[in-house]
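Q: Sequence in, structure out?
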Amino acid sequence: MLFETVSVIPGVFDPYLDASIMGRARRAGIFEFRAHDLRDWTHDRHRTVDDAPFGGGQGMLMKPGPIFEAVEELSSEGPRPHVVFFSPCGARFDQRVAERLAGEERVLLVCGRYEGVDERVYSLADEVLSLGDYVLTGGELAALVVIDAVVRLLPGALGDEASPVDESFSQESGLLEYAQYTRPSTYRGMPVPEVLLSGDHARVDRWRRLSSVERTARWRPDLLEGVDLDEEERRVVEGVALASACDGPGGGVADATPSLG
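A: Exactly. Output:
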């Protein structure tokens, strides 16, 4: 799979994509990455990519010309890329979008900057994405988030093929991932749940399901809508709701560790 970015600061990507899991996956050929400098498609000696907005207002807008030329030239080389822009008005990026993008052969991520881009450039986009209801200085961080989320879904990227399947937002259940622990078995008076030390795989699987339910009820109760819960799981949800009511607004955070059997 090939990822490409168009940006005015193309040097920000490689340090992250050459490190850790991303770096190993890149060196193994699981994905390729190319960063393109938008200024390569300018035609003045100052390599200008921005200008003042019509109608006045603060800040500068990215001009349409360099972006159109960049996307059109890159699209003419090899298989046509799936072109993604970033904007607060875009569709929310989530795990389902990441899974869909993982099926693309080539993805071109266009990174805006300054006060935004000329509205006409969105005609080039196959889709426009947003990471959430906040504003970033530029699209480079958003592009890295998308690349990271997609690459880890590619076969061989994580080593353990089951790893992305069990994670939050990837589970068929729609629940958050269960709580996890490692050595030591007791730390500062906080023990690991006994069931995880039992070696009983059936009990562990059941505990993990209940833990997923509890964590989802505690942190993201909105995700429980439409989830099919059995009687025991519903009691877990009710217990979290009761504990939160007793703790008051913001309560329960300090007790986030599941207290399941």
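The helical segments are 14-17, 20-27, 64-75, 95-101, 140-151, 201-219, 231-247.
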